[in-house]
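Researcher: Let's run the pair from yesterday's discussion. Sequence first, then tokens, for each.
Model: Starting with the first of the pair.
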Amino acid sequence: MSGTLPAAGPASAADGPQRLTVDLAESEGPVMLGANGALYGLSDDGVPSDAALEPLKITSISQKPEGGAQHPNGDALAVSKSFFRNGGGEINVMMQDIYAKWPYEDLGIDDYLPKIDKIVKEVAADPNSDRFVYIPFNEPDQIWYKLGVEDQAQYEANRDRFFKDWKTVYQRIRAIDPDARIAGPNEAGYHTRLLKDFLAFAKRENVLPQVMTWHELGSGSLRDFQAHYDNYRSLEREAGIAPLKINIDEYANRRDLSVPGQLVQWVSMFERNKVYANQAYWDAAGNMDGNVVRSNIPNGGWWFFRWYAGLTGDTVKVTPPQANAIDTLQGLASLDESRRQAQVLLGGSAGDTDVVVDNVSRSVFGRTVTATVAEAAWSGYEGQHATPRVLTRTKVKVADDGTVTVPLRGLHKMSAYRIVLTPGGSGTPSAPSVPWSASYEAEDAAITDGKVYTQGTVSNANGYAASGTKDVGSLNTATSKVDFTVNVPKDGTYDLAILYGNQSGAPATQKLSVDGGDPVTVGYPSTENWTYRAKKDVTVALKAGQHVLTLAKGDAEVTLDRIDLTTRTGAPSASYEATLADISGTPSYDYSSSAGTGTGALVLRSGDKAVFDVYAPRDGYYTVAPRATAPVKVALHGESVTAEPGRPLRLYLVAGNNRVAVTAKHAAVRSLDVSGDGSTTGTLSYEGASATLAGGAKLVDSAHASAGSYIGWLGNSTDSKAEFTVDAPRSGRYVLVVHYGHNDRRDNGHAYNTDIMSRTADISVGTAAPRTVTFKNTWSWDDYWTVGVPVDLKKGSNKVTFGNATAWAPNIDRIELGRVVGQ
């Protein structure tokens, strides 16, 4: 089995396939989706975008109090607007992040209490105050109180000081907000000694938290968490305390974040135990802790969490080959009898696996099932990942003993896999087209004037993830190069994906040559650091047989991790199964036929809606075809259009994820089929030089801007404006795509996190009221990203104006506009 971006790793040494067993008859309770949260996952309203945030169905996040000095953004009240707008659950307020230093400066409880008062008054005044949870102390076992000391006498003295302050702060919060929910004690690790004492004290003094929190931040947590959880529940029982809600409000290491095969191990153990959990904040805010590229683009981690958000019904028991073991095959599964669907998410191990599903009820599924297998691969922290490719789609007879076995071969350690079981019905599912693909590690290639580095291992869990745990860096001399020997099966065009890092401070280049031929330039956007992996996609034409692909130093240093070669079979395409879409209303599920995508049809009637998450590799036009038995309405970017059966639409999609809604009076919808590579035919494009500038805004020369200059010094005054005159061929709804760049940062005095800032611009179209749009930091002043903004234009001349009266707006390279429904 091979996927779009296979993550290389050694094959399993076992003689036969591993076995992961799913028992559909053993419910663990309703799917909770507790483990999808993040610390500083949001940085601003719009970062990440609504389309990236809403599909994940986030149950909890942790953010700093409004105006907190620990970081320059991520204020709880500020981000709550987009969080709640997109269906978010609750927000933990990390109250000590009001302080600037790390570890927090210890100025005594008397300094802290007025800060507590301010935070609680602000949160209590919010209309959604009941959806906030106060966390008054963060890692008190290490910070301020040193509760982890071995000396018992010293521990007791430190403990008593902490307990006194806990009671004082708890009562202070409740005095202002009587209904406040308070969480704690929030240790950096699990401490039986402390928790036993804490529960006894808190019960006696009537200051029990409503949410129990601690952190799981070691690679050993994958082994130890279950014992921690079991021990904690036993402490509650011994103390006569009813089970508290648990939030592991920081989990996972750098090597885990963004990596589907690692994340599935963490999520499975938290969901199994029905606890909430938030990924740790090791780097920059606003990307859901390594799962959202830029503001709106999915990576492999995002797709894993999208799958997790798609589980419905009850979770059921999963028995992995090894329980509570680090870096092993793990999984979680769900059964929704009303939808007649079972789903299994698994990963974390290379090699071959048999997934055995027990107790497949004939009354629910019938005598046959369709088993659909897809892969979410690792694409780096900042590497885009297209819609997960379906690897196999087969109709399987349910065995006499009620079991279904799904064989998985050639799994990749860093990938996660999803199996969906639906009733087989009549007909035969279409076999997916899986192109040939191969991966080549940079450390295994011929290296000239470079160095192999080891990253992200169990023993160095806070190192960054790298394919095969190694990469090639120090490619910083004129003769530095990496020669990859590849072998392709036939003549043709191949997609070449390069996993890289670029910390040079500007876009960097390398020279790509085939068999020593004339080189072409490959451009690499900036990344957070050398090891914060991104992905560059290019194409190469190759004859069948062996070749040497050379990546040689260009104008700056670039780190190389791995390349993937995949046969290009035409414009990208994906088929999104309607029975797996997000729904509202009460649609029904029809599995009478498994033809086509194999997962049946979703029957929509008035009041029903299905929402699909559609990936686009770039801004532009795509062909969108609902496979339906009757006309359906398709809604996108605030525009709605009727799609007749068999008549594809030409729709404008923005780079990354697009939420496409489908409604109907009465239609059975099998899938939403999307193809294309982002045509710009019919779009309008205006360079920065065409704008009228005022109030200090001016054109600045730049070799990296599309036409050699960008609009800079925009904003920070009511007079500073950039006005484009846009000539629309007809009235209607358009997407305004802004190509922008900026590298605004604030040094908070500690290097623990990368404190990037976002900028905003107020954009007005014609006489409409200005709209404030957020633009995330692009890692350097010379990198240009895009943000798409739906706008309404009238036929003929329209004024599109950018400004910001109170702060600097981003630099603007150019703008494009595409009508949502193209001709």
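Model: Moving on to the second of the pair.
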Amino acid sequence: MSAEATNPVSAAEAAATDTGVRRRGRARLDLRRLGRAALLGATAGPAPRDRLPDAISHVAEAHRAHHPEADLSVLRRAYVLAETSHRGQFRKSGEPYITHPLAVTLILAELGAETVTLTASLLHDTVEDTEVTLDQVRREFGDEVAYLVDGVTKVEKIDYGAAAEPETFRKMLVATGNDVRVMSIKLADRLHNMRTLGVMRPEKQARIAKVTRDVLIPLAERLGVQALKTELEDLVFAILHPEEYEATRALIADATGSGSPDALAAVADRVAAVLREADIAAEVLVRPRHFVSVHRVRLKRGDLRGCDFGRLLVLVAEDADCYAVLGELHTCFTPLISEFKDFIAAPKFNLYQSLHTAIAAPDGGVAEVLIRTHRMHKVAEAGVVALGSPHGTAPDPVESAEGPEPAEDGERTDPTRPGWLARLLDWQESAPDPDTFWSSLRADLAEDHEITVFRADGGTLGLPAGATCVDAAYAQHGEAAHACLGARVNGRLTPLSAVLSDGDTVQLLLAQDAGSGPSPAWLDHARTPAARIAITSWLQAHPEAAPQPAAAPRPPLSVAADRSSGAELHADLDGGPPAPVRAAGCCTPVPPDAITGFLVRGGSVTAHRTGCPAVDVMRRLGRTPVPVRWGEAAHCRVTLVAESFGRPGLLADLTEAIATAGAEVVSATVEPPSEQRVRHTYTLQLADAAELPQLMRAMRDVPGVYDVGRTHRL
């Protein structure tokens, strides 16, 4: 139950008023007028059944703007129950308490919430603060409304004190995760309370503002509800940083009240003219920045120009029109390519889609431009609220006795639930204790940037910026990632510790042995809570996997055989006797490789592959190349390096593959495993050099081997 009241002179209220005027172009509703309307309704009796009570006419108007065919009779009945049950309860300002659920419902109606959400919003405090029971709500309005009211009631009971935060917030997310509309109502509830926080003691204002900043604003960002997030940011900014807030407010007042021409409006006119000439139907709007955004731009750019106080918003009908607008802007204006981002082809983790670009303004500044369709704009502003019921078309609340159909596992399915929230619900179940969950959650919410990487099967993964291959493994495979041995990033073998970039393609390599486990070193590379909790849980369950004291390094395992001669080589020495020629061990050339020879001590000649690094070294040292050529003999000797993941029986399988291919092992060296990887070096005798490609393919086909190549070293 909210006890906050309105204080018209508070910084928070000023921020709310300014933000509302700047965003929607109209003043905020007078809550005192709503209170009087509620009292008149209480004394004059209920409104006739064929019309809405005057107190919720503004809610009905906003709702019908988004849902013209909505059945408003349900809202009328919900209001009557809420007003009757809250009658006699007052806020600290003296207003009837019904003004609070009315204001919360109006916020959601303006965002485009469907009727079920608005019904639950009107009733969201009844079960907690009045004699109304959840069973009564279920009988009157159906299971779906009752489910939402129950979820919000559980959220309202949360004590945000430091000692209670971990476990209670965990429960809140569980309730929210099964239906994101629970959190939508909670965010609207917090926004109204923040707007009317003025009568609270300063220390309590600060405490509520900090929780809003640390928890609820990041959640609003992840749910994509930008309209709520930006206003909450400004209200928190006014309370926690009053001096910076006032300085920013003065900057905005000077920019809007100076009487000088609006630079951004002039750019908007030029953009609109260009699009008309290109026959592209578009709406070009000037979108003022909110206070926190202006503050951030000032910190980034220093002195602000006229275009820095807002951005251009271009709204079109179809996705293809977005790219047509982008082409015209980049053709007719000077674009800043570094500012271009395509969130249409790769939507952000919170469902946001838009094209971002920037063009040079006439005053030397930068005009940022957002390009999106009308539907994208609705989702960008309202996020999951704009997507309606996550269970399809909601049945009539009265006639529905069954409620939404559950999933096969008994959990309510929610196709609009963002991927990050689904992942959060998965790993919170694995968190060993509430404190670990809370610290991991705070770290996850603190991430304000996410990257998208592509899986080898064509899917995508959303990860926080700075995530590594370890994080990608657990995001894609869950606990099966314990057996991950390596990864290919953009086709190249990469350590699991490698940091991923936006747009990378990741192929994760898993061991065949299901009993494999993560290395303790993986904790140094894991950024996501899912990865860290899974790794920690496995290591605690397998204490024998703890790192042992470092032992003396083992020498490589070497096996040597008779060294028969390789392919025949000849050197052409001007006027000199024939010199013995041997293949260089650094690159082991075989026919028909292009070769280059050099005289070495003892009068012999060493033949290198032409691309061998040693050739460049010899040339820099002033050594004169000697012409060398292959003889008639087809047999040859070659050194191959096999890179593999360690597993039992690997050496035997590789040796069998070599023997089956008809090659003879001259020598073999197996280096000690490093990070579950093993390097095998084989010097092999082949009867025919033409068999080398087939031999290398046979070695690559051995399970666990990920690369086979010829030596190429100094």
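Researcher: Give me one sentence on the second I can quote.
Model: The mean pLDDT is 76.
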